[in-house]
Write a structure and sequence with these properties.
The complex is a heterodimer of chains A (72) and B (573).
Chain A lengths: L1 E4 L10 E3 L6 E2 H7 L7 E6 L2 E2 L5 E2 L4 E6 L5
Parallel strand pairs in A: 1-7
Antiparallel strand pairs in A: 1-2, 3-6, 4-5, 4-7
Chain B lengths: L1 E6 L4 E6 L9 H12 L13 E5 L13 E6 L6 E6 L3 H8 L1 E7 L8 E5 L5 E5 L8 H12 L4 E4 L2 H4 L7 E3 L8 E3 L4 H7 L2 E6 L11 H17 L8 H5 L5 H6 L21 H11 L2 E4 L10 E5 L5 E3 L4 H8 L7 H14 L3 H13 L8 H13 L2 H7 L2 H8 L6 E2 L2 E2 L9 H9 L26 H18 L6 H6 L1 H12 L5 H21 L12 H4 L13 H6 L8
Parallel strand pairs in B: 1-6, 7-12
Antiparallel strand pairs in B: 1-2, 3-4, 3-6, 4-5, 7-8, 9-10, 9-12, 10-11, 13-14, 14-15, 16-17
Helix pairs in contact in B: 1-17, 1-20, 6-19, 10-11, 10-12, 11-13, 12-15, 13-14, 16-17, 17-20
Classes of the chains: A mainly beta (72), B alpha+beta (573).
């Protein structure tokens, strides 16, 4: 699985890397494993599509965590 | 509150006390009402019957953070309908503190004489002939006028594009600390200002404070509002906007496949990494530039920057997302230095970077320049100031450029170029582009900030989402509040009601607040209807309904019936 963190979520740590997991896990479980500040996460995408905390992610996916963002 | 009326034919200036039709209105709401009351809807937008209206929002000058935006409006030369564009800087707060409800610039002079309007504290107003300003860019114009009238004056000005009455022309507004590049960019309002031969409006820095009906009520509400912005982990100084600027969204929009790329032919730019806010922040800090500066004094979000070159010399302040999308990825540039230099040229000539990015993309498709080639694209842009045939074409916007060059793939709705979100993969924005009385305008109701409510690639819920966002945007644009400050007010609308009541003592209720916001859209739709704009005009161009957008291979497939129904809630009661 390719994981990328954006903005302040990547501050002080690696921004993009690959990691293998033994079984699928939810986005929320993954975020906990990565010790992300969930309150700051505003958008999640799996393979470029908007996703939610309960969606499943597997080793073939690319998942991105973005901080809260406003367009303007 | 006073309305300053300037007749550019007779050169008379009159001050009017707040007349009845315009009570309890400000900013965009006031512009809509004035257009309905005073401007023939089918008039020539660049003729004497149109009016340029400059109006602070209702909160202007009251010390509310992020609430000093200045609205400028009139009948749009670009869309043929209602237009309000707003800018940061110091004008909104200065006019609010001076007690100015609006400056209305009317009629048209007979000769080719150019004027500056000078507004002093105490509201003595002069219309001064300054023909030496003709031909100057906005940077030189504002410096000249601040040297003449005082360094802390606010200057509202047009560049060469506005002088030539080109439909891609915007209006520049100065701020503090030598800031010269806040722009009410959209809809060709710079052309409207040029049609009045008013090169600039100069506002003396006020020392007076805005009178307040109930200072305690205002102070408490604005304190809670500012505190929410400051303390939230996702807004204010801890938020992405402050840390990475509006470019913070480049990575997300690209990842989701909505970043305009190579003339709106893809939603994903492979070289977007070096356009992202994270990269921009690093570059600026390494070179000795500035991040986290404010366009309005006291703003706690502070999302601007000063983008500098490798020697630490400023190229442009500020480099923003929409410019990066339209002038960057859309034109095939992955180097922020190139984008910043093109941005500077647009700012100086007084051109809307969104409209120019789209125009230039169309010109590239026609073979006049190459994607990613700075010289060929800058050469086209520089012709705008020279007034050549090509320059006039580009400066008149994307639709005019497409018509001239025979290109059908023009990314525009209601005559105005689309901002930095391809509507095929962010369909809520497509609904807003199509249906907003303002034409394709992300600030009229940007669905990007509401992604979690509706699937951006789906159909369901888009019209309801767009409607809700358009009502909120009408409130923001009428009060002078920056759209980045909207979350606390959406969550706590009573704070806005209390701030308004604290300033004016109107006894507003939440119901009045909701009614006010919806009335703005009702008035604008009515003006457009009278101007001859029909439901068939409120559409996304057909090529975007047929040409799949990579990487998701999606088209714009929101049914026309949904577009036609967006504003039904306004007329149900």
């Amino acid at each position: 699985m390719e994981i990328e963190l954006f903005g302040q979520l990547a501050e002080g740590r690696e921004a993009i890397w690959k990691e293998e997991f033994l079984q699928p896990l939810t986005v929320h479980e993954l975020a906990e494993k990565l010790s992300l500040d969930i309150e700051v996460v505003g958008l999640i995408s799996i393979d470029g599509k908007q996703s939610d905390w309960n969606d499943q992610v597997t080793n073939v996916n690319r998942i991105c965590f973005f901080p809260y963002l406003e367009g303007g | 509150m006073t309305i300053i009326r300037v007749d550019t034919r007779t050169l008379q200036v009159n001050l009017e006390a707040d007349p009845a039709p315009y009570e309890r209105l400000g900013g965009r709401a006031l512009i809509a009402k004035m257009l309905l009351e005073e401007v023939p809807p089918r008039c020539d937008p660049l003729g004497p019957e149109n009016k340029l209206i400059i109006a602070p929002g209702l909160l202007g000058g009251s010390g509310v953070t992020a609430a000093g935006r200045l609205s400028i409006g009139g009948k749009s030369p670009l869309t043929g309908g209602v237009k309000e564009a707003n800018a940061g800087g110091t004008a909104g707060d200065a006019l609010g503190a001076l007690g100015v409800k609006a400056i209305v610039i009317e009629n048209q002079p007979l000769g080719d004489y150019w004027y500056a309007l000078m507004i002093h504290e105490g509201l003595s107003v002069e219309l001064i002939q300054l023909n030496e300003l003709k031909g100057l860019g906005t940077y030189t114009t504002s410096k000249f006028l601040q040297n003449k009238f005082g360094k802390d004056c606010t200057v509202i000005s047009i560049g060469q594009a506005g002088e030539q009455m080109l439909c891609g022309a915007g209006i520049a507004v100065t701020g503090t600390h030598d800031q010269r590049s806040n722009h009410a960019a959209r809809g060709g309002l710079g052309a409207l200002m040029g049609s009045k031969r008013v090169k600039a409006v100069v506002i003396e820095k006020p020392t007076a404070k805005k009178p307040l009906h109930d200072p305690d009520l205002l102070h408490e509400a604005r304190r809670k509002f500012a505190s929410e912005l400051i303390n939230s982990p996702k807004l204010g100084r801890k938020g992405s906007q402050h840390l990475y600027g509006t470019a913070s969204i480049v990575g997300a929009v690209n990842e989701m496949g909505s970043l305009p790329t190579h003339g709106f032919s893809s939603g994903k730019f492979e070289a977007a990494e070096t356009l992202r806010g994270e990269f921009m922040r690093k570059t600026i800090l390494e070179r000795g530039g500035k991040i986290g500066t404010s366009c309005m004094p006291g703003c706690v979000i502070a999302c601007r920057n000063v983008y500098v070159d490798q020697d630490g010399e400023p190229i442009v302040g500020t480099l923003q997302y929409e410019t990066i999308a339209l002038v960057g990825s859309n034109l095939g540039f992955s180097n922020l230095d190139d984008v910043a230099r093109l941005n500077y040229i647009c700012n100086d000539y007084g051109l809307d970077t969104i409209e120019m990015g789209a125009s230039l993309g169309v010109a590239v498709e026609a073979g006049l320049a190459e994607f990613g080639d700075f010289k060929s694209i800058a050469d086209l842009l520089e012709q705008v100031a020279l007034g050549t045939e090509v320059g006039v074409m580009i400066g008149n916007g994307a639709v005019a450029t497409g018509e001239k060059l025979g290109i059908k793939r023009v990314p525009a709705a209601l005559g105005q170029a689309m901002p930095g979100y391809d509507p095929r993969s962010l369909k809520g924005n497509g609904v807003t582009y199509a249906t907003s009385p303002q034409g394709a305008d992300h600030t009229a109701g940007n669905a990007f900030g509401a992604r979690n409510e509706v699937d951006p690639l789906g159909i369901d819920g888009q019209k309801e989402l767009s409607f809700k966002l358009q009502v909120i945007a009408a409130m923001l644009d009428s009060t002078g509040l920056c759209l980045f400050a909207r979350p606390p007010i959406i969550a706590n609308p009573q704070w806005m009601v209390d701030m308004i009541n604290g300033i004016y003592g109107w006894g507003w209720t939440l119901e009045d607040y909701h009614q006010f916001n919806q009335d703005v859209l009702r008035m604008e739709l009515e003006f457009n209807h009278r101007a001859g704009i029909t439901t068939a005009d409120y559409r996304i161009p057909s090529w975007m309904q047929e040409e799949p957008l990579p990487p998701h291979q999606v088209v714009f497939d929101i049914p026309d019936s949904d577009l036609d129904d967006v504003f039904n809630p306004l007329f149900m009661s």
